[in-house]
Design goal:
The chain is mostly helical. Helix content is 48%, strand content 0%. Pfam families: Retrotrans_gag.
Length: 176
């Protein structure tokens, strides 16, 4: 069970019921939809909600089922009461159910097969590349590999520009 700031599982004083914001704007989630997007939107919506004496983790764990609809609600309702004790555990179970391996493969391929468009600036390419990385939380790529992949998929003109800036080849520079 989620706990309050005292770690004792007791709800806050004043009736014990936490307020439930209207999360109906969260889209219906079906297998194959973007579970990561749903989680990010949920975290964004709930980040400003604070209840005295209740940890962010406990509050998120309490509110998360209210962000679910239809199939996802039925999935959640199959868990025994209080069997999920942290939001991190909920996050992993939710992604395991709704972030299918085929989606992970598609998004990883999008990252590894990235190419800069001819009419795209380096900044625009970087933003698009980072978006691909952010959409796949379990891409398992080290930061150096991410940068290497990005750099090698830039147009030759932009790689030459980057290489000229530090005075030597960009990829020969080593992180300190």
């Amino acid at each position: 069970m989620a706990t309050n700031e005292n770690g004792d599982g007791v709800p806050p004083a004043g009736g014990g019921d936490l307020p439930v914001p209207d999360l109906r704007t969260m889209e219906e989630l079906l297998p194959g939809d973007d579970a990561n997007k749903h989680l990010n939107k949920f975290l964004h919506v709930t980040q400003s909600i604070k209840v005295n004496g209740v940890t962010d983790d406990a509050l998120r764990l309490y509110l998360f089922p209210h962000s679910l609809t239809h199939h996802a609600t039925a999935w959640f309702d199959r868990f025994p009461r209080n069997s999920i004790t942290t939001f991190e555990q909920m996050d992993k179970m939710f992604l395991g159910k709704y972030f299918l391996p085929s989606i992970v493969t598609k998004l990883r391929n999008e990252i590894t097969n990235f190419r800069q468009y001819l009419d795209e600036s380096v900044f625009e390419a970087w933003e698009r590349y980072k978006l691909s990385i952010d959409r796949c939380p379990n891409h398992n790529m080290l930061p150096f590999t991410q940068i290497d992949t990005f750099y090698n998929r830039l147009t030759l003109r932009h790689r030459d520009t980057i290489n000229a800036a530090p005075g030597r080849t960009f990829m020969n520079r080593r992180p300190k």
